[in-house]
Design goal:
alpha+beta, 110 residues, binds zinc ion, 4 strands
Length: 110
């Protein structure tokens, strides 16, 4: 589970909409190193941009795309997609009580 401490502004919602549309078109982020994702440009010209997750809970990430570099209003969809992927990556489902008990059994005294 990730606790978001940053406001999900209309700019983030818009960036997420664009990320969703690009995902539908097959443009998805790929984890290339811990906290680092890469994503193709929506221009389909072979350009790949790199996103670095700074703090997923605060929705902080950098991107080397023109939008990300110039600090334009709003957020680039690459960062939105990378943050969403990072949330999925770190939000593994909790094990069931049964599974947790089975794993903890190895610490029981024999
Ligand atoms: Zn970007």
């Amino acid at each position: 589970m990730v606790k978001l401490t940053a406001p999900v502004t209309p700019a983030w919602v818009s960036a997420n909409d664009r990320a969703y549309q690009n995902r539908q078109a097959g443009r998805v982020v790929t984890l290339v190193a811990p906290g680092v994702y890469q994503c193709p440009s929506s221009k389909a010209d072979g350009t790949v941009y790199t996103q670095r997750i700074l703090n997923v809970g605060q929705l902080q990430a950098t991107c080397d795309c023109p939008h990300g570099q110039h600090g334009a209003a709003g957020h680039c969809w690459h960062s939105a997609a990378a943050l969403a992927a990072e949330v999925c990556r770190v939000s593994r489902p909790r094990p069931s009580a049964e599974e947790a008990a089975r794993k903890m059994a190895r610490f029981a005294r024999r």
